[in-house]
Write a structure and sequence with these properties.
- The complex is a heterotrimer of chains A (200), B (143) and C (203).
- Helices cover 68% and strands 2% of the residues of chain A.
- By secondary structure, chain A is mainly α.
- In chain A, strands 1-2 form a two-stranded antiparallel ribbon.
- In chain A, α2 crosses α4.
- Chain A is globular.
- Chain C is elongated.
- Classes of the chains: A mainly alpha (200), B alpha/beta (143), C alpha/beta (203).
Chain lengths: 200, 143, 203
């Protein structure tokens, strides 16, 4: 299964099976963490609930530290890990659209699926909208091609850009993330809202 | 509180030990593979005497061909005492075997184990030259 | 002590260890030295030129011949069905799909025995399976397949089969390599395309 070297020798069905169970675990964790609630997700933007920030950054730093360690012990081939190519303009525009969609719809795509699976009707419409948007994007791609391809930087990594080793960058990011969590919890106290879940 | 600190430092210590063991384990390949492509590797029997500095011939076969050479059978190349012997040699190491295939493979292994100044000793002046010339048949056409 | 503080402390500690690790972006061998030595002493890694001639005659699709010589030497003459990966270009990531796979047997050759065995040891060290060497290289191919003649009075059935095989491979070799350069390029390009399609589209 991709870059994890010890899994390469397993038969394909077993690899797919492992992927299936990881997927189940991921969905379960998302729902458990309350990510199927759009109030929780939108709370990120108003500052009363920063779970989203904490969860995603924790995932990022754990994955970063773990992949560095596994690669050092030869269990993971980092050369095979896909690095997204960086299109500056497209990233900025896309980020704005994604953020706006996030706060208005109350879901990001993954949590939308998680919410749909517990039967939320708004999530159904959110996902149909998302799919139509992807379809529209593909159909109108020739018109926005210049914008989408502008300022192409290739598959760059932050540590290369900063000129430090991946390990040092990992350490800096961990420290930054923990500082951010602390600030986020301060913000949660400042912008706290009453829990209205029981009233609905 | 105290228990937690012990637990956390225990995990970190274990990790540190694993990392140190890996870093100082001499029984692993750690060198960049591209070194094996860019290092100068071949010396022929004809011009080995023009080499500058000391050199030692290490033979990987059973039958000794050069006087004063060191004999290390290929399959015992990585035994501890043999590795120590190789490391203690002063000057260049020339690997010889009757079949150049064996010395080539030994060269890659030693190169990737951070041995420098190792060469393949070749019977022929240039083992990688084509000794034949292709004779085209201009009457043929592709079917 | 709060769970989040525990996890934070643990992560900062791991980060500190990582920050001191030597940075090694380069590729190094996956196999342990003793493992590589063990498979190196095995003689299963060789195919004789007669066996390769049979692969050519049967157009065996489970075999991929890989010519490690320079592009110029490759254009001059190569065994039909080969692709050219010059020795100095071996670690170019664009070849990785050919070298690291589990579908076909890769048979490496150059003019002699040195380069092919170096490459065999390198790719095997990297953990790529299905690697083989054509014993003797192009020199042996010329000597045995292209130029050998049967001399003697009575030919045994076994020798007969052997020479049939050589003559047939010799004809194919001469035909393909006698093509003018432009046609040969087209032929090789067509073969490469055909293979990249088989390979699938994953960059």
């Amino acid at each position: 299964m991709g870059p994890i070297t010890i899994l390469n020798d397993l038969p394909e069905w077993l690899n797919l099976g492992i992927g299936f169970f990881i997927g189940i675990g991921f969905g379960f964790a998302l729902e458990q963490a309350g990510f199927s609630s759009s109030r929780k997700l939108a709370g990120m933007f108003y500052g009363y609930d920063t779970t989203v920030l904490k969860v995603f950054f924790t995932a990022a730093i754990v994955a970063l530290a773990g992949s560095q360690l596994l690669s050092y012990f030869g269990l993971l081939d980092l050369n095979l890990v896909y690095v997204n190519p960086y299109y500056v303009t497209a990233t900025l525009v896309g980020g704005v659209i994604m953020g706006a969609g996030f706060i208005m719809g109350g879901f990001c795509p993954g949590t939308g699926i998680s919410a749909l699976s517990i039967g939320k009707i708004d999530a159904l419409f959110f996902l149909v909208g998302g799919l139509s948007g992807a379809f529209l994007f593909a159909e109108t791609f020739p018109l926005i091609q210049t914008l989408a391809g502008a300022n192409y930087k290739g598959p760059v990594r932050v540590d290369e850009w900063l000129g430090v080793s991946p390990g040092v960058f990992t350490f800096l990011l961990i420290v930054a993330a923990i500082t951010m969590f602390w600030l986020a919890e301060l913000a949660e106290k400042k912008y706290a809202r009453n829990d209205i879940t029981s009233e609905i | 509180m105290k228990k937690n600190i012990i637990w956390i430092s225990g995990v970190l210590l274990l990790l540190l030990i694993l990392v140190l063991v890996r870093t100082f384990n001499s029984n692993l390949f750690k060198r960049n593979v591209s070194e094996a492509l860019t290092t100068e590797m071949t010396v022929s029997v004809q011009n080995m005497n023009e080499l500058s500095g000391n050199f030692n011939i290490v033979e990987l076969n059973e039958n000794q061909r050069f006087p004063n050479s060191m004999m290390i059978p290929f399959d015992k190349l990585l035994q501890k005492e043999n590795k120590e012997k190789l490391a203690s040699l002063d000057g260049k190491i020339l690997l010889y075997s009757s079949d150049i295939a064996t010395s080539s493979k030994a060269w890659v292994i030693l190169n990737q184990l951070d041995f420098d100044d190792v060469y393949i000793l070749s019977d022929e002046e240039n083992p990688e030259v084509l000794k034949y010339k292709f004779q085209p048949d201009t009457t043929v056409e592709l079917e | 002590m709060n769970a989040r503080i525990k996890i934070s402390a643990l992560l900062v500690g791991v980060g500190l260890i990582l920050a001191f690790l030597p940075f090694n972006a380069a590729k190094s061998f996956q196999l342990k030295p003793t493992e590589l030595l063990e498979i190196s002493t095995n003689t299963d890694m060789y195919f004789s030129v007669d066996e390769v001639a049979r692969f050519v005659n049967n157009e065996d699709t489970t075999i991929q011949l890989i010519d490690l010589r320079s592009a110029a030497e490759f254009m001059e003459s190569n065994i039909p069905g080969s692709i050219n990966i010059p020795f100095s270009d071996l670690l170019n990531p664009s070849w990785e799909g050919y070298l690291d796979q589990d579908k076909v047997k890769n048979v490496y050759y150059a003019n002699g025995d040195e380069t092919a065995n170096l490459v065999w040891a390198i790719v095997s060290g990297l953990g790529y399976s299905n690697s083989f060497v054509m014993k003797g290289g192009m020199n042996e191919w010329y000597k045995t397949v292209m130029l050998s003649k049967f001399e003697g009075d009575r030919i045994t059935p076994r020798e007969n089969a052997l020479f049939e095989n050589r003559y047939k491979a010799r004809r194919t070799f001469t035909q393909i390599n006698s093509l003018p350069d432009s046609l040969k390029k087209q032929y090789l390009e067509a073969k490469r395309l055909e293979e990249s399609q088989l390979d699938g589209g994953c960059e």
